[in-house]
Amino acid sequence: MDLRNHSVFLRCMKFEKIHNKGQAELFRNQYLEMLTKTHPLVIWALYTPAFAGLPYYAATRFGFDAVKITIGILAGMLFWTFFEYIMHRFVFHWVAESQRAQKIVYVMHGNHHHFPRDRERLFMPPVPSLIIASVIFGLMYLMMGRLVFVFFPGFILGYLMYGSMHYAIHAWNPPFKWMKPLWRNHHLHNYKDDHRGFGVSTTIWDRAFGTMFDLKKEKEDKEKVKELMF
Q1: CA–CA separation, 116 vs 76, rounded Å?
Q2: CA 192: distance to chain centroid?
Q3: 3-state per-residue secondary structure call for 175-220
Q4: How far from chain centre, in Å, is Cα 207?
Q5: Is the Cβ–Cβ distance between 78 and 153 less than 8 Å?
Q6: DSSP code at position 150
Q7: Nearest 5°: phi and psi at 20?
Q8: What are 195-214's pLDDT values in tens digits?
Q9: pLDDT one-digit tens code per residue, 177-197
């Protein structure tokens, strides 16, 4: 991958041209390139057994009741939204200095800003996803012990809902009026100002940390919204 061919300005994740068709070539090796792509259903199939099995294990092995399981899952989902915001703001939009670091940022997230409608890269692909999820599970287990078996499933469900929401935002109009601010917040992040609008599954943390777009002042271009759809 040669970043110069993409006209990338990774200091602010800006590009000379944002592509509404096609996808970035991340690796010249066709097998590595294949591993960077996936479909939402693949990721759901990958993690659903963990989401279903871990609470069952907590109930049968440690005697967790329905209330504790429910609270644990809801807490995990809430923590995911915060984790998502922090990762998006400070890791995916990391200001890279070296060319190697810039390549890493482009592979992780920059390619999405360059090709925001690439539906095969709206979820993290299976291999890196499983590696990262395993590391996170291990760290959570060290910190909270057996509670991880009800907390981590909520965290994973939050991730699955985030990925599905991300896919929907780039594929369709908001199905409900109350979801419209979420759609606009992310579209403005991709197409106008990448220093704001980091929340994808929720705008809670954008509002809390002052990175929410002022949607009342942002003009809505319905024709542009149509162009953002697959």
Answers
A1: 28
A2: 19
A3: CCHHHHHHHHHHHHHHHCCCCCCCCCCCCHHHHHHCCCCCCCCCCC
A4: 18
A5: no
A6: H
A7: -95, 0
A8: 999 999 999 999 999 999 99
A9: 888 889 899 989 988 888 999
